[in-house]
Amino acid sequence: GTWLAGMLTVAWFLINRVDTTRIEYSIPLRENWALPYFACQVAALTGYLKRNLNTYAERFCYLLMSAWTYTFMVMWEYSHYILFIQALSLLLLDIFSVEQSNKVHEVYKIYIFSLFLGYLLQFENPALLVSPLLSLVGALMLIKCLQLNGKKGTFVAKVMKVIKFYLVCTLPVTLNVIMKMFVPHKENEHMLKFLEVKFGLNMTKNFTLNWLLCQESFQAPSQDFFLRLTQSSLLPFYILVLIICLISMTQVIFRRISLKFIWTPYVCMLAAFGVCSPELWMTLLKWLRLKTVHPVLLALILSMAVPTIIGLSFWKEFFPRLITELTELQEFYDPDTVELMTWIKRQAPVAAVFAGSPQLMGAIKLCTGWMVTSLPLYSDDDLLKRNENIYQIYSKRSAEDIYKILTSYKANYLIVEDAICNEVGTMRGCRVKDLLDVANGHVVCEEGDRLTHSKYGRFCHEVKINYSPYVNYFTRVYWNRSYFVYKINTVISFQS
């Protein structure tokens, strides 16, 4: 109800941009393009769920929500997991009668429509058909169709509630199992295994899963994260607003039935809403039972004074820092990579196929257009296995093994990165070569495992020395401080 909350949200978002977005320090990936549409979808959904909304405003919000949900679904292959959490939240609101049941089920229809349209436009992506979102909303729509309403308070009505609760808990799982039996799929398997390991339900030596778990974006928030949010005054106000909202919602629930690179941007929004909301301050003042000043007047004063004080503190502490950062002109400087790309464009045959780390292969594909063996995509099991196989160039495998792997993918050139080969990781056991040693059984991972001693040195080191049998399979054609390029020999001549 006030523009001040919007301004405060933007200010908090910018000040905490290291934690609200990773667009500053990483290549824009699909989620970077998709998340703004999700924000629009949340806004339209919030408007649609409002009570006492006129017919035209309700239809407008419904159309916007349909468009943004579909766009978000098409833009990012993992969007259905985010919408699954949203659907669970709507289910809880429906169960506790906080929101109108008919509106919630209209949202479920949008989910189903978006899933099937996304399935068709994503070249019949089977991951959407076996997604937990489709199983959940499909089951809930089916329960809605089968629902028999008895008179409130009667024995039949109570029995129907028990049956409904049982169906809500079991039917989505049953539907998901049935869909997986009839729909061939691989896309979701690695994600489910990843979640099992992440939440401590399982352990694995799989290179890809351990590599993903080692990425900074999947680590638990550090103390610095909470310290940054506290220094910008965001976390204290968020906690205050959240506590008041949760207590208020709990009161509503009990009253109705007689007798929870995505979180941080919405922290900014919720905290700003609470700080600028007279209704929330009034709720807090009523709990404190202040009698000296009228609660309504004091709530109005606080809803303007507190944001003003926060804004002045931002102006004094953070605004000069932002201006300084904006005046700093930064440019890309990586001469070794530029030299490599220039060499590929000028010296490599047009039909050449390059092999190396997925990140470097993605850069080569974008900068030169040459063919590569792998790409940094983690939504396909075949690509994940291919990436793991290519990464074996940093393991303790023989020259013959590496040669067979690379030629199986029709590679002509191999690029070894010194940064990976001689990596000094800050997190123990998270270097690529450490993960490969675990996956290949060259180090002990758990008690009871057998240690397999490799009779070969690390390939990326050995191939640089230029001795047999490595020179029989690979010929160095280019190198600089960071990259070593080897031509994969088509005719192998063994030297003594």
From TrEMBL:
Residues 1-20 form the signal peptide. It is found in: Membrane. Pfam families: Dpy19. The keyword DNA repair does not apply. It comes from the Eukaryota. One of its GO terms (molecular function) is mannosyltransferase activity. It is a multi-pass membrane protein. The chain crosses the membrane at residues 56-75, 129-150, 162-183, 235-254, 266-284, 296-315. One of its GO terms (cellular component) is nuclear inner membrane. Keywords: Glycosyltransferase, Membrane, Signal, Transferase, Transmembrane, Transmembrane helix. The keyword NAD does not apply. Belongs to the dpy-19 family. This is Dpy-19 like 4. It comes from Nannospalax galili (Northern Israeli blind subterranean mole rat).
